[in-house]
Amino acid sequence: MVKAKVFIYNKEYEGLPKEGDLILKEEDLPPIEDGEFLAKAVYLSVEPFMRSSASVVPLGSVLIAFQIAKILESKNPDFPVDRYVVGFFGCRTYTVANGKGSMGFLAAHLIPDLEDVPLSYFLGILGTPGNTAYFGFLEVCQPKKGETVVVSGAAGSIGCIVGQIAKIKGCKVIGIAGSDEKGKWLMDELGFDDFINYKTHDLDEVLTQIAPNGVDCYFDNVGGKTTAILIKHMSDGGRISVCGTMSTYNEKDGKSFPTSLPLFCFVSKQIKMEGFLVYKWIDRFPESVQQNLRWIQEGKLKYRETVTEGFENMFQAFLGMLQGKNFGKAIVKI
Amino acid sequence: MVKAKVFIYNKEYEGLPKEGDLILKEEDLPPIEDGEFLAKAVYLSVEPFMRSSASVVPLGSVLIAFQIAKILESKNPDFPVDRYVVGFFGCRTYTVANGKGSMGFLAAHLIPDLEDVPLSYFLGILGTPGNTAYFGFLEVCQPKKGETVVVSGAAGSIGCIVGQIAKIKGCKVIGIAGSDEKGKWLMDELGFDDFINYKTHDLDEVLTQIAPNGVDCYFDNVGGKTTAILIKHMSDGGRISVCGTMSTYNEKDGKSFPTSLPLFCFVSKQIKMEGFLVYKWIDRFPESVQQNLRWIQEGKLKYRETVTEGFENMFQAFLGMLQGKNFGKAIVKI
Fold it and tell me: What is the pTM of this model?
């Protein structure tokens, strides 16, 4: 019998998650039946939505997460042994699955064999974050060459891709993040035009200086005060894509957490603001995966991962990501 | 020499405008030159933007306003004597103009001779408010048959048209306004399906009851708390058209007045919110005027005006409109 280690959502988060909020347990897995397969986790994805979705996950269930897993046994011809899958299996070391979707998320899917791309990229730039950056920016913001684009959470798994896609599209790109080290990475390695450390600088003042003609597109990962300041700086006809509101996830009642926005600016500047869930474009995912892959192969899209070793250290990786410690995509290597 | 009476913007508004904020003066008009005409005001339009645009109008200038005027003398073949024009002439009894635009607003234009439609409608349902309702609702909200539409400021000059267009398009329409008398008019005469008096009822509670499946389109004339509550009630993929934020115009620093909104709802419900200025669709105004006229002639679009008699009483009409005393379009008959 296979024993799986699992992280259970044990206690409702108050603010930043604490050690006891998740507990590590062992679970006996049943033998696989027809249509099922057994897979062993190789990488776990650590993402903001694991915190923001807490209220829809019942206490006592396995913490939600995407993972890459290797198929060890199979009674499902679509999922052959030794292949790797991306699955929404949760934080667990072994999984018995049938490859169908759950909780409205993607069904598990096989990872193609690509020699020049690391396997773990399928949790990031070739997975949900990559699809999110591609559609959430291009479809919602409709950027035009020469426009000024601001990305918050710019050094995160999605933000760093958005900024690079904006550069590919000929925009001037300004990243907002919380350390100068991140800023250096964004500018020196990823080609961002400018960077604002929101912890040490006055965002309002700096934007006045470096975006004097206003911001045409704002890709919002953080919400809160940052959004309010950006609205003031949007140009006429500016577009805001709301991907997440990371700055409010640890607030009590984060889902309805009120953010003070200058609403009249929406009228006077004809601003459009649109929130999205990436599954809106699920039928077009092959397009984003193919395009992001091509840009990687052409050297136009760079990627970085912050890797935590060991399943048991998942909580630390989760906490670190919520505190903004990661550069690029946070993952756990099992 | 023609003497014109004019209302001068004399003192910066603090909160609701007060008597002394505007002063009535007399002005000598010069004789008309080539390309000019002299016109006598017949109707003045009284609109919320006259308050909200205060900060861009210098003290000492004539209070901005649209008016309908009769051409008395002309040295411009495009503006013949005895015809009526709509012009952005300001609050004045006589005007010397050349028919060109000013302050980014429409140039003056001749009113067509239509026997079955009152002249004053060209300040309302066949003018800016009509164009605003038509494009601001149809283009931004993209309503579909069977959807639930909420309109705030529903008994105002724009809101009452939006609601009726939504009915024409097969939507369920809920109006929000500040008196039961207005509600009765909206439901009994204009065909709204439901009505909420925000002064006597809890908007949040009532919406839960009468829009249990959520609001698909919200046409926002008021901003503030109403917008925050509506965002909570939007359905997945809901669209918000921000036409104005009337509830904040009399606040200090009304243009950047902060409104607390549950920003995360934009993500989780994939909400789109877009503000607009109707001049965005200026090239398509003939379409909205023609369509609104056709609907009036077919009896599908009803209209009402709150008429104040006498140029001198313009201030009272302006104040009354800001206090929500008007049903439909507020105008002053000279």
Answer: 0.93
